[in-house]
Amino acid sequence: MTYCVGLLLNEGMVLLSDTRTNAGLDNIATYRKMFTFEVPGERVIVLMTAGSLSVTQTTLARLHEAAEDPEATDGTSILLAPTMLKVAELIGNTLAGVRAEVDGKLAATHASASASMIVAGQRKGGVMRMFLVYPEGNFIEATEDTPFLQIGEHKYGKPILDRVVRPETTLADGQKAVLLSMDSTLRSNLSVGMPLDLAVVAQGALRVTLERRIEAGDKDFRAMSEAWSAALRQSFARVKI
Question: What domains, with CATH codes, occur in the chain?
Answer without folding.
Answer: 3-236 (3.60.20.10)
